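Interim report to the steering committee. The following record documents the input for (Fe-S)-binding protein (417 residues).
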Amino acid sequence: MLNKVSSSITTLLDERRAGHSLPAGLYTRDDVFEADVEVFFMNHWIQVGVECDVPEPGDASVIDIGSTSLILLRDDDNQIRVMRNVCRHRGSRLLDAGSSVISKLVCPYHQWTYELSGELSYAPHMGKDFDKSCRSLKPVNFRSIGGLIYVCLSDDPPTDIKRLEEVMEKRLAPYDLRNTKVAHQVDVIEKGNWKLTMENNRECYHCSANHPELCVSFVDLDFGFDPDSLSPEDRNEAEEHFALYAERTRGWEEAGFPSATVEQVRHCETNFRTQRLIISGAGESQTEDATAASSKLLGTMARKDLGDLHLWGHNSWNHVMGDHAVTSTAVPLSADTTLVRTKWLVHKDAVEGVDYDLDKLTHVWVATTEQDSELVARSYAGIQDSAYEPGPYSKFSEGALDDFSSWYVERMRAHGY
């Protein structure tokens, strides 16, 4: 039997019309926010970081999701581990937010000490009969997929992440993201619900009017269009473009670079989509002039013409190019605020000022992220207005939003709402 809060959320889910945005309460209400965190950030796989966040043994990084805190670290055997940031004595946080370098995990409260494996090695004044073996730090289910770190906080994580692993390990292998470094990181607090952040990212209906920097390297026709509105000349251009896509995709795949669209976006637990996108103009990278930002290419890459390997999940989006990668994760902070963390990755041996210029590397996505933050805030402000009612998605430009909203409702119902 659902309680009153659950029943109320169920009513909102029932009100959602196919092909339309969600009812206002699903974006604005605190009880929905709490349910979202539980369903989508505690019981589904989420992307939280990259292996190069912790490049050396002893490197640690704290990731907070709601009231949950995680430690991503590299142990003495050079293996990645993820564990709960909670001392097994009386629950104190072991590490503060951010990055640190440690030889052991020492609780600042009572000095309980853990190896980088999570094993409790020292617990003062607990008596000779105290059994340390059952007081190791609690591990977290995680996967490193091509160097991208996914975690699931449930004891029963979704098994369909195997499809994501199968597809992306092969696609990401030539870029060797495990041997990159974080050249730059930007945290932006968006004034809107996390679902608006993800919806905004999943369409480019808004791009030509709002993202001049990004549009240098993105192809306008990829943003979606109404074919009936095109002139004969524009229609011919569109046909030529999609013929080029078919030709490029075929050529890339024949050369050993999987490129075709793969998506798992409805009737599933682990939501993702990937495709290799053509880069416009010079065709090399998402920079101001579409040329490569780093002369030292990633991994085993010897080509700059392999486009943008795009991957999104329900809390992340990634763009991987020959010279660098951009990875972004979204973490809900409250019903009306969302953390967007963006990282720029380059080859681990690339030297700033020698192999790459930091401004050229970051300019496009710094600008785009700031622009998107403003758009999300405007959208959230409007949704709070009593005049808001769910509007229809463009079937030409916003099909991915309908997929996302439909998947959201499916997953909420699967968890009892």
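The chain has two domains: 46-157, 161-414. The committee is asked to note this result when reviewing the revised timeline.
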